[in-house]
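Task: encode each sequence below as structure tokens.

Item 1
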Amino acid sequence: MNGTYSIGVDLGGTHLRIASYSGGVDFLESILLPTRLSEGPDCVVRDMCEAINSLRSKENDGRQLIGIGVGSPGPMQLPEGVLHNPPNLPGWDRFDLRQAIESELRTSVQIEGDANLAALAEQKLGAGKMYDVDSLCVLTLGTGVGSGLVLNGRIWHGATGMGGEAGHIMVQDLEGAICGCGGYGCLEQYASASAIVRMARERMSDAAPATAHQVADLARAGDLRAASVFETVGQALAIALTSLINTLNLPLYLLGGGACDAWDLLAPTMFRALRKRSYVYRLTEPEVQEPLNLEVGKTYVLGAQLGSAAGLLGACLLSYQTNVQETGSAEDLLVHQ
């Protein structure tokens, strides 16, 4: 029995997810709260810390708390944990998230990008574990488009913690949709769940779908306007993946988030466009796109495995990952439990 546990937080634009964790892919206990963005960041931090303290007060079978990890949308300066105009957290520009949490809890915490944590979880517990891959890229297609890179088993941060912001690769010209980041034509505006709803409403105002799931249902029922939305999503993903594949030459790229429930609608266009655009993908395309084992030297684009729990699992793993790197202690007890 692992004698330690961690607490993880997944700060989302809609929900706060907080959990205690001691290994494997299940939580000891979890708490789900609405993210009260309209009441400001201090209110959200108080809600978060109250939930953390609630989990800290549990006995947890005598386990010792090893650390607290928090995942947040970016861009964010790391390890300081200062947010810089995050598109999906309006009003949080220059908010010192780590300092605010530590002041409330009176203990140290680790802050990390939410998509980075999803990538870490997929590498340690999901597709990376299944396929024995220590380097991968994850795109999370949710309210926005997050991205995370794990290289040789470690999160890649770049110089200031803002590495891997692939959601803001330009996939349209300057006439494209304006993005919350201040740019135009970003991937986030053509492949996120919110973008799917926006494009559907622009193209089929009479139907006015409220969710990406409803748009997918209409497309599967034969609505050509809804189907065209997912063709646009596939094209946008192919453009972004071309940049990532040609630059990074990783073995595995994973797409996660709610929009990937429409994989059957977006993937055909995505792969057709990817073959045309990426010479590295053409040279390394596998014969079987979803194999039991990855062939060495091939490039795979697959659906992520851990679903909506990936970011929270990554936040819980963060303390263990840091402990392994600092002490060299074995992590098999954690990830194989």
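Item 2
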Amino acid sequence: MQWTVVIPVKGTPSAKSRLGGSAALAHAIALDTVEAALGAASVIVVTPAENAADFEALGARVVADTGGGLSGAVATGIQAAGDVPVAILLGDLPALLSSELSAALAEASTLDRSFVPDAEGTGTSLIASTTDHAPAFGAGSAQRHRDAGYERLEVSESSGLRRDVDTPDQLAALGDRVGPRTRTRQP
């Protein structure tokens, strides 16, 4: 099954404010995430126009984020993908490996709707659907996705697919497992 992965990327100076507000670090994390995703599927990045060139240079298709926060960006990406199986991947997974995403998408191909929780088990790093989506990202999203009919994919807690980065401690815990751009931008 051929998947399209939509990755919303905030791309503003306030991106990753809990991580210290470094726009350069947030951008590096997003680039590493997109590059890993491209090894597993076609990718649409939803981001402000000023960020387009870096993602296009990697081989991603870029769609302009016209506002509406994360929910708006996700809806824009789903619409841009068209009538194909679509996965929504958050852009803050600097330790993600292409093989991890490929394995998750292979399992997702057998289900109508599926999700991968973050390492804490309360948030969501990926949702996938072979039919239609009911995204519910934000605090407590893992339970909301379950309630919307998404089935949990069996992904190891140590997988880069579950290791989203919102705080300096989360980034530090990944050590040298992060992608090359993130590694050079770490504080």
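Check on item 2: Residues 23-38 form the longest helix (16 residues). The domain at 4-175 is CATH 3.90.550.10 (Spore Coat Polysaccharide Biosynthesis Protein SpsA; Chain A).
End of task.
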